[in-house]
Write a structure and sequence with these properties.
The structure is a homodimer. In chain A, strand 2, helix 1 (19-32) and strand 3 (35-38) form a beta-alpha-beta unit. Chain A has one domain (9-292): Alpha-Beta Barrel (TIM Barrel), CATH 3.20.20.140. A 6-stranded parallel β-sheet of chain A has the order 5-6-7-8-9-10. A 3-stranded antiparallel β-sheet of chain A has the order 1-11-14. Chain A has helices at 19-32, 49-62, 81-86, 112-121, 138-152, 166-169, 171-174, 184-188, 191-195, 212-223, 240-244, 256-266, 270-285; strands at 3-7, 10-14, 35-38, 68-71, 73-74, 89-92, 124-127, 158-160, 178-182, 229-231, 293-297, 301-302, 318-319, 322-323. Chain A is built from 13 helices and 14 strands. Chain A starts with a strand and ends with a strand. The longest helix of chain A is centred in the C-terminal third of the chain and has 16 residues, at 270-285. The interface between A and B is medium-sized, with 22 and 23 residues.
């Protein structure tokens, strides 16, 4: 049977939530990946290293496989410089742009001192790059802010998270210290999948999936193993009822590696898969991961309609690949 | 109390459905309007004058107020020339573009003979103008088709239905025989209302609400009483369960005139309201309507959460105006 072996695959952008939902979703990622950057947009947000460590302990308690969760620090005006110095990743959310961004930055200039400290101590700045403008322009409108940050702090590694448009993809060549993560759903879908036929609320997320041209720019990066880009799922589970009230987020964790195998194979890019989901992240983030080989086999499997009260991406569909 | 008197307001684009749903929704329109062009996308579609007359009789049976329903004929390859000659309005749906468009036209050229007959006998061609392209470009991509139709049949009155973008609004000045209807929701909302914050599936419709610039172009027409444009609600009720499965359509009938009064007042355009909802349609369609004066008064009312199993637009909101 055809198979693909992945050494320590890494999810560079993951939401694991907390409480019962954490217990449901964390084992799913821990089975498929050797580690992840875990996002800090809990309620309340993770603003201290102590809170990050406590959350990391809860994540580890929820899983039963070797898995390294790297919890990012949520950048708010309450964050202390001492904690920034001890952080590996600091996450910047502009105010109000997505789930849990009510604690986000109203004025990025407020953090100049912190950015200076970060570039001195080698912490990575992870950014949800969307403006407060019209929904389809929000990412492109954020491009000048990325450029200014990259220029002002040339030794600061800045990761443009879950990029969904060509305008941001194009920045990677312009600024050496700009990096990016790309999700599975932005590689797969466009606005037409979300609302071109019937409305598919399960594909609603921020940033919104965009045009075929935007998707092509992202695919070009992923399928060419572009070294400044790593896979970050942005898997973001919401209970069914919250999703029905319109919450943004796609629960992709249960289908990530099999779907990536299918997609890369369909585009004759299987050779680039290891760079995209393993090697690039290890170089960009310089992480130490537990040794873990994940084997994908070409055996079809059907995605369940619901997992612990959450509807997964591709529910009811059959994927051509499985985790062995 | 401030009031606005409207003489025989007309809804130039209305979906009344059939069966129980017809009985729920028809009285709502009949209370507020003196008549409407009723769309023929039933199952099966209204393809003959006999079917149109039978449907018209069912509509009249469902209402208890003077109201003139003008049922459009659904243009399919089964439609007979004799019926076209007796029709006032013929509706062209490109194949598959919206609810009930599975019977629509795969090749508009198939209808050249019918279009020729229509312009000779004075029937009006009503068109859902969207291409099969990417969802946000579908209306703009249809512009050349409108132009070609208008040029090929210069005596055919062509109504561009529920226009939602500036590209189509701009055609009105270019071609004398192109007209348009505009909905309330395209005057009120943009993509940001649909999916800029939480996903609001109750604002999902075809054509999709678009950018602020598109909306501004439509407002410019409505607020200036532009004579080639009339109000057509495209009120399109779906039972709650169908809406939850992603059906396209907004049930706006219960809130139309009060919301229009509020909107036109907010933009100092109250003087244009009569042209937009009464006079223009009577000139464009040359309809005979039962005399009916509808009085709007500036008295707030709250929109119910559900009417006969259908969620109305603006449910739970308070509108500043009411029908007396």
């Amino acid at each position: 049977m055809q198979e693909i072996k992945l050494d320590s695959p890494f999810d560079s952008h993951l939401h694991l939530r907390d409480g019962d939902l954490l217990k449901t979703v964390a084992p799913i990622s821990a089975r498929a990946f050797a580690g992840a950057i875990v996002m800090p947009n809990l309620t309340p947000p993770i603003e201290t290293i102590d809170a990050a460590n406590a959350y990391k302990a809860r994540v580890i308690q929820a899983i039963d496989a070797p898995f390294e969760p790297i919890v990012a620090l949520y950048l708010t005006r309450r964050v202390k410089l001492d904690d920034v110095k001890r952080a590996k990743i600091v996450k910047l959310y502009p105010f109000g742009v997505t789930t849990g961004a009510e604690s986000g930055a109203k004025n990025i200039g407020d953090f100049d001192e912190i950015f200076g400290v970060m570039q001195d101590c080698g912490a990575i700045l992870s950014v949800h790059g969307e403006s407060g403008g019209e929904v389809l322009q929000r990412e492109a409108e954020f491009a000048p802010i990325y450029e200014k940050l990259a220029k002002t702090y040339p030794r600061l590694k800045i990761v443009m998270e879950h990029i969904g448009c060509a305008a941001l993809a194009n920045l990677l060549e312009k600024r050496e210290n700009l990096y990016a993560t790309i999700t599975l759903h932005h590689l797969l879908y466009t606005l037409d999948d979300l609302l071109g036929g019937a409305l598919n609320s399960h594909l609603f997320c921020k940033p919104i999936v965009k045009t075929a041209a935007d998707r092509a720019a992202l695919r070009q990066l992923a399928f060419s193993a572009y070294p400044k880009v790593s896979f970050g799922s942005d898997s973001a589970p919401h209970p069914k009822a919250a999703k029905e009230r319109g919450a943004a987020g796609i629960f992709s964790a249960p289908v990530l590696l099999p779907t990536l195998a299918e997609l890369f194979e369909a585009h004759s890019a299987t050779d680039a898969l290891r760079a995209f989901v393993c090697d690039n992240a290890q170089k960009i983030y310089d992480v130490k991961l537990p040794p873990k080989t994940v084997t994908l086999i070409k055996k079809p499997a059907t995605v369940p309609n619901e997992i612990g009260g959450v509807v997964p991406m591709r529910f009811g569909e059959t994927i051509g690949w499985s985790i062995a």
